[in-house]
From TrEMBL:
UniProt KW keywords: ATP-binding, Nucleotide-binding, Transport
Identification of the protein by name: ABC transporter ATP-binding protein
Gene source species: Methylomarinum roseum
Taxonomic placement: Bacteria, Pseudomonadati, Pseudomonadota, Gammaproteobacteria, Methylococcales
Gene3D superfamilies, per the entry: P-loop containing nucleotide triphosphate hydrolases
Family matches, as Pfam families: ABC_tran
């Protein structure tokens, strides 16, 4: 569903991501982790078609994100770390706008159910400018789900959410994956990634240090430590001077 092959991104002469290759299939949730500046947002923004790759190929639901950009974007839901909404539109108008843009017929039942799920019914006629940070995040996620995308990209999805919001969004991600979406979650919250993701990609200084199944990476360290967590894995990969550690 998501295919990234030999992807490199440079900003002027700085290489932010180098030769990255990975796939995410339908129903899988990939956790994208790495220290500040590792290249996570660059990866997500390129896959969502916001910035162009310098080299390599990236495709979404069979559509190349450069040569078939419109179809790729139709198949995508993207939730940036700082949700960009239209301040003077209400919550409901956002859903209407997304339905019209993506040509979603009979969108009202799905929109109503998203409002209920994210506890936004009481805010449906409020302009989003008047909403809290967490509520805006939930509106952005509801909009991203409305057109039933095959691929969903989250950049730090839980910022500003209360415990009920966190639970709702985690549950919604699992539901989307169960319905066949391929999902990438970029986050510094390792517990979130460990509890939710089927696969893991660790980026460090723009390079892939591990890509594979979550249970496999935890098992490798488990043999050494007895009770490894993703946090142990993260530090052993990203704080190691050994360039081969990431290959496991
Ligand atoms: N527009 C830009 N121009 C120049 N350099 C950039 C630009 N955007 C990002 N970079 C650089 O590319 C590298 C990767 O940045 P990126 O934002 O992708 O990292 P990240 O893993 O998302 O970091 P964080 O966890 O802090 O959000 C950093 O060194 C950053 O300074």
């Amino acid at each position: 569903m998501i295919h990234v092959n030999n992807f490199t991104k440079t900003y002027h002469d700085f290489v932010a991501v180098r030769n990255l290759t990975f796939n995410v299939e339908a129903g899988e949730i990939l956790g994208l982790v790495g220290p500040n500046g590792a290249g996570k947002t660059t990866m997500i923004r390129t896959l969502s078609g916001i910035i162009p790759p310098s080299s390599g190929t990236l495709s979404v639901a069979g559509h190349d994100i450069v040569s078939d950009a419109v179809m790729a974007k139709r198949a995508l839901g993207y939730i940036p770390d700082d949700p960009r909404l239209f301040d003077s539109l209400t919550v409901w108008e956002h859903l209407e706008f997304i339905a019209a843009t993506y040509g979603v017929d009979h969108f009202k039942p799905a929109a109503e159910s998203l409002l209920r799920f994210f506890n936004l019914e009481g805010k449906r006629n409020h302009v989003v400018q008047s909403l809290s940070r967490g509520m805006r995040q939930k509106v952005a996620i509801a909009c991203a789900y409305l057109h039933r995308p095959d691929v969903i990209l989250f950049d730090e999805p839980l910022t500003g959410l209360d415990p009920a919001g966190i639970r709702a969004i985690k549950e919604s991600m699992q539901q989307q994956a169960a319905q066949g979406a391929a999902i990438i979650i970029s986050s510094h919250l390792l517990e979130l990634v460990e509890s939710l993701c089927s696969h893991l990609l660790v980026l460090h200084q723009g390079q892939c240090r591990y890509f594979g199944r979550m249970e496999d990476v935890l098992q490798v360290l488990d043999h050494a430590n007895g009770d490894a967590s993703l946090e142990d894995v993260f530090f052993s990969i990203t704080h190691s001077d050994n360039p081969d550690l990431g290959s496991f």
